[in-house]
Amino acid sequence: MAEITLNALAHTYAENPTRPEDYAIREMTHVWEQGGAFALLGPSGCGKSTLLNIISGLLEPSNGEVLFDGKRVNELKPEERNIAQVFQFPVVYDTMTVFDNLAFPLRNIGVPKHKITSKVHEVAEILELSDQLQRKAKGLSADQKQKVSMGRGLVRDDVSAILFDEPLTVIDPQLKWKLRRKLKQIHEQFNITMVYVTHDQLEASTFADKIAVMYNGQIVQFGTPRELFENPAHTFVGYFIGSPGMNFFEAELTDKLTFGGHTIAINKEMLTRLKAMGTNKVTLGIRPEFVHVWDGKNDDAFPVSVDYVEDLGTYKILSFLFNGQVMKARLSEDQKVPSGQIYVSFPEQWTKVYVDDYLVDLNVHPTSSDKAIDNEQDKETDHAN
């Protein structure tokens, strides 16, 4: 097991990078704690696989360091890092038996035969492959082959970490939930540092204790599934996490916050903070789950028009027009389905405030949100120079 530290890490495929957009990985410093189960979540093209390949040693970063337990490993080959990596598509030797596939990493490092047999049977039992050990790998199903790929990472006691690069891509949807649970059980049993790359928020939430959300080559938030849902630190997190994602709308700041002539409730401390930041445009966000839909007129609510309703069985998603903008609210199973003009309100504690896409949070030091924004802008300026 190892603590993996990315120190001022950045990577580009361009020969002469001049803009932030030229970097597949923009400069970041991040720590994967020893023994943790982490997910790296983001859309295709955001840099997830590039970052994973840098950690494993398949790719050398343009700038910065990769540290295992404080030791720089930039120059070490993948096999010297004691990293196991499971890819999207199963990597197995079809002409070998399942036993020989699992034993292969141990034979390569000279483990005694009796220990190999013991370890292979232990891992095969965990992965429910015991009855397949004498079968040729070419006769296995896709999910069984992926189990073998995972097992090859688990047989080694000296492995520093296991990296999973969207390992359930080829797995039948009905079997995915079972393998996700199996991975979680394996982590709890072996306490190995695991990093799981995926674009699927359900996979990330099921597997990981903490999730790093990646966007445009940056980790924009690192936290528990609940933290990402309830307190998105970046507008992309609000958009990407949740189904449907967060409602966003632009508000004007004067002596109050307004949207289309409507005053949005916000506490005085937040107003003071926003004025000190010198901006007159802010983005407000609220999740559909927290929008309050009223049965009748309410002085504290806004009049809106129902657009349409999606019935998803145990709940419904109401789409409505607020000042010409489509927003969504989640209705419980037994809640009356409204029509025509209705009234909605946005509870203050669940209405998030963003400037330049970053959360303005009153629970942190008064200037930290400002600094987060300034630092991001400074980094982009530095890269451009």
UniProtKB/TrEMBL annotation:
GO MF, one annotated term: ATP binding
Residue intervals of the ABC transporter domain: 4-241
The entry's keywords: ATP-binding, Cell membrane, Membrane, Nucleotide-binding, Transport
Top-rank taxon: Bacteria
CDD domains per the UniProt record, alphabetical: ABC_Carb_Solutes_like
Cross-referenced Pfam families: ABC_tran, OB_MalK
This protein's name: ABC transporter ATP-binding protein
Protein's organism: Marinomonas colpomeniae
